[in-house]
Amino acid sequence: MKKLLLGLIIVLSVSCIRAQKIDTTYIRPYPQKYRISGYLSTSSLEIDDTERHYTPNYPLNTGIGFAIKNTIVGVQLGYGFIPLTDKKKYGKTKTRDFQIHHYGRKMIFDIFFQDYRGFYVDKGKDQDPEMFRSMSVKQIGMEATYLFNGKRFSSKAAFDLDEIQVHSTGSWLVGSGGYYYQLKGMERSGMDGTYGLENFQLGINGGYAYSWVVSKRWMMTGTIQAGANFGNAPKLLKKGKVEVYPTAFARIAGNYHKNNWGISFAILINNKIVYPVKREELNLTAITMQLSYVKHLDDLFKSKKK
User: Fold this and answer.
1) pLDDT of the residue at 1
2) What are the start-end ranges of the E strands in the chain?
3) What InterPro entries does the record tag this protein with (predicted)?
């Protein structure tokens, strides 16, 4: 897995420096050389079995980023520092959440490594939540999405604040992805004890993206993809047993930009279905929300005039 992630990072980095033709009446690049960013975000991996909704006590994350444009130099660091709900009431969730979202001219790449341990089920205002401290869920996956109208529709402007979308436009999308899921220590209504599962899926999807340029400074963007994955538990796949799973992936973003800076709020919703051995439906939803500030600079350290 480490070798796979390293290879993907190299591929994404190299794709950043490949020259791509654009329609400059629709897309305008920022002319500055450097890009500095800061953000606040939350990420959550939630499970629904039609009777219970299992939620982790996920933290608020903060981070910074730096990039030299038209090179492979780009770094982003983040740290989760405080749970969003009371640890005494809702328990503590141990999280390892690593994500890469690369927005290119023709391709969008998403890489997920999410490992959550410790969940609760909220039973309402008058009752204490039910704790599942030993329950853990892991999602490892990648999505690759092709943009048919990359010359006019800019995913960089919509989700990365690295360009400016001058006019409203959209693009059809087609993509594919692969995922591995692991669940341990889960308790469900009407069942004794706990159980776990493993699931591996590969699939395809399609959809549409649209950016609405509200004014010179404001823009709203939405994308939706739906499709089907094929897979099963590894032991069952070896026996040739393949199941079909519906999938959905949506992104929503709103941003405000000036000539050398911008602010963006984005939401990613990645929904997958997993069936345990007894074919009782489990719905896994990864939700990421991020508020970002981006500053574009020509000089990092200006020399003092004599």
Assistant:
1) 44
2) 27-29, 34-48, 53-56, 59-68, 74-83, 94-103, 107-121, 130-147, 163-165, 169-186, 195-213, 218-232, 243-257, 261-274, 282-297
3) DUF4421
At residue 15 the predicted structure's pLDDT band, cuts being 50, 70 and 90, is: very low
- Number of domains, the chain: 1
> Is residue 235 within a helix (H) or strand (E), and if so which, with residue range?
helix 234-238
**Separation CA 196–CA 277 (nearest Å):** 10
The Cα 135–Cα 263 span in angstroms is 37
In a domain, 241, yes or no: yes
d(Cα 162, Cα 63) in Å, to the nearest integer? 18
Within a domain: 303: no
Cβ atoms of 103 and 110 within 8 Å: the answer is no
- 165 vs 297: CA distance, rounded Å: 19
Q: Tell which residue, 274, 39, 12, has the closest CA to residue 142.
A: 12
What is the Cα–Cα distance from 118 to 91, expressed in whole angstroms?
7
Distances in Å between the alpha carbon of 173 and those of 108, 148, 170, 218, 226? 10, 6, 10, 24, 10
pLDDT tens digits along 88-116: 777 888 888 888 888 988 999 999 999 99
Residue 306 lies in a domain: no
Tokens in use for 184? 């341990």
Cα 251 to chain centroid, rounded? 9
Q: What is the CATH number of the domain that holds 243?
A: 2.40.128
